[in-house]
Amino acid sequence: MLDVKNINVYYGRRKVIKDASFQIAPGEIVGLIGPNGAGKTTIMKTLLGLTKFTGTITFDNHQITAKDHKILQRVGALIENPAIYPFLSGKENMELYSKDREDMQKLITRLEMDSYINRLARSYSIGMKQKLGIALALLNDPELVILDEPMNGLDIEATISIRKIIHEYANRGTAFLISSHVLSELQKVMTSVLILNHQEIIMDVPIDKFKNAKVTHDQLQTTDMAGTRELLTTHQLAFQEQDGALVINASDADEIQRLLYQNGITLQMLMPIRKTFEQAIIEILKEKRGDKK
After folding, report:
1. pLDDT of 41-95, one tens digit each?
2. Separation of alpha carbons 7 and 265, rounded Å
3. For residue 246, is it within any domain?
4. What does the alpha-carbon distance between residue 63 and residue 2 come to, in Å, rounded to a whole number?
5. Residue 264's CB: how many other CB atoms inside 10 A?
6. Most buried one in 6, 113, 153, 204, CB count within 10 A?
């Protein structure tokens, strides 16, 4: 659906996006991740034809340029802050863009905005404005939806509701590009990950790469922790202490179990330690920062 090849974006003489290339397929939910200033919002604006760039962007075989905004007819977007008119009601804001009033009303109800949709948008809370911005992005069944920090200002119930709606649209073939600093929430919806650092895309992989990451350490507890520590030290098997347990190399687990059995120590727990998604991303960014030095 979307094919981005070697795009470069400049602010004056400063290059803010460097040779970015990626693809998004129908129904795919892509998470765009990176530190502040990495260029996430710039990439999103560039996809909408809002910034000048070099390289090529093709949407459904149609090439996008900074002068050609036809893409906006088939793409929904929420970039930075909801683009709403404060002196119109929420419903009037939606009516400006809606091509199907029945679809519009379904979105209002689905996002639980019925109680305030006829009030002037200037009276809305941050969360209400955010919901309205998301509703505007989802109007008219877009083929691609671009969301920049969509969970800002939303409570837990609204966040769960938005997550379900994203899945529903994706199941119908709508593609999503979502940027968020709330990685735990992003992990629950995305099917692939784009990591941006120093204005470059440093990783473009399915989310399963993180879910199926190799386990390198195990957590160990026994009926005789003092004896276990002595045993591992004697056999020069590395370990660290953490929260009343021992952290061992996963590659040593079989040898350690054999030694415990031979020395009459009962194993109570042997559990793999898996990195959280946030930990994995932080490590990747740290490694890349080291490469730049």
Report:
1. 999 988 888 888 889 998 888 888 766 666 667 899 998 888 899 999 999 999 9
2. 60
3. yes
4. 10
5. 9
6. 113
CA-to-CA dists, residue 180 to 30, 133, 138, 146, angstroms: 11, 15, 18, 11
pLDDT in tens, 133-152: 999 999 999 999 999 989 88
- With residue 257 as reference, give the H or E element that holds it: helix 253-262
CATH code for position 171: 3.40.50.300
d(CA 56, CA 49): 11
Q: Which of 234, 241, 274 is nearest to 256 (CA)?
A: 234
Instruction: Quote the number of domains for the chain.
Output: 2
Do residues 131 and 256 both lie within one domain? no
In terms of domains, do 171 and 258 share one?
no
d(CA 20, CA 9): 9
Same domain for 228 and 167? Answer: no
Question: How far, in Å, CA of 257 to CA of 66, rounded?
Answer: 63
How many whole angstroms separate alpha carbon 101 and alpha carbon 176?
Answer: 23
CA distances from 63 to 28, 60, 67, 114, 242 (A): 20, 8, 11, 39, 55
Residues 15 and 74 in one domain: yes
What residues have CB less than 8 Å from 270, skipping those under 6 apart?
218, 219, 220, 253, 257
- Single-letter code of the amino acid located at 3: D
Q: pTM for this structure? A: 0.80
Give the integer Cα–Cα distance in Å for 196 and 204: 9
Q: Look at residue 287 and tell me if it is in a domain.
A: no
Residue 221 structural domain? 217-273
